């Protein structure tokens, strides 16, 4: 957990548990994420190629579209987080967010210009932003505190299974439809609506504890001022991670750059998400028992190694190695960051805390993706990934220095 003086400290470690001990609502939320990510990653694994090859846009435009889209999701989370905490309810906003994501999916195959794609990505990410903070808070509300790391890890693992299935379907249907990207994009519509149906039918709205009844935060952004200092260190750490990890669209484009056929480009996301899905739950479970730094440092090391491999890549095989290391980095760090945010924030401000965390991360991902597109356009792909490795190294040094000073 995180102490009030912003030092990462070990907690009393509970006995090892299995995923069977997690409540059914956590499994249902995981399935919701899985179906939506199946839809989203099918689209996103082909969208960079669709934008550059079919619509004819530049690499800088790809960086701007991806950066603005992801930043929009993060910016929206702060507002939905505050609203969720004020209302004391989570599920309604989660349903609205997933519903917006579902209704945008037909817009991608219908797109005739980059404006259509930008609009669809924007609305889709608004939906992601609306659902993100309330959903993450809902995980903490449903799961027992001693199982939070495992709960976030399981949801992230199932999310990553969907992120694996999406590109697999993209590869299969690219072959089935003889490379017709628009036809394949239509396949992504059905899983998105299945996701919303599972959410409505199977995810409960927990009762608000009586102890929280008199602690309703004000419906105002000023509520973030009540968050403790230790929480803001986690926000800073998350921003550094995000600056070092720009949009995954650049992994897809790197594979195409080294000569991988368009129909097989989604394999990059498949490799990444196999490793991500396989590592997220074990890493989350381990996070319930070990010091946080024991996962953060290896996670950053994997990101540096991924960037180095992608910078040096001269063949699809090396890109796949880089994608695998990227996925391992995600598995080691993403559930851990969510756990730290939940542990560091008061229960009545938990959704606000996730919203503020993602607001800062959104600014970082926008900056990182735009800079990555500029570096690619000006100096080539290798320089883009070298820059990512340098930022990841800096994040590791900052964490190491902070921990060393805190220990003195």
Provide a descriptive summary of the structure in words.
By secondary structure, this protein is mainly alpha-helical. The chain has a single domain (22-207, 228-407), classed as MFS general substrate transporter like domains (Growth Hormone, Chain: A), CATH 1.20.1250.20. The protein has 15 helices and no strands. It has helices spanning 24-54, 59-87, 91-104, 107-110, 114-142, 148-176, 181-187, 189-202, 229-244, 249-257, 267-287, 293-312, 316-344, 350-379, 381-407. α1 (24-54) runs parallel beside α6 and α3 (91-104) packs antiparallel against α8.
Total DSSP E strands? 0
Molecular shape: globular
For the termini, the CA-CA separation is 19 Å
> What are the segments in which pLDDT stays under 50 over at least 5 consecutive residues?
1-17
- Main beta-sheet annotation: none
Computed over alpha carbons, the radius of gyration is 20 Å
CATH homologous superfamily grouping = MFS general substrate transporter like domains
Q: Report the order of strands and helices.
A: HHHHHHHHHHHHHHH
Briefly note the CATH topology name. Growth Hormone, Chain: A
Query: Into which percent range does the helicity of residues fall?
Result: over 70%
> How large is the count of helical segments?
15
SS class: mainly alpha
Task: Work out the strand percent.
Answer: under 5%
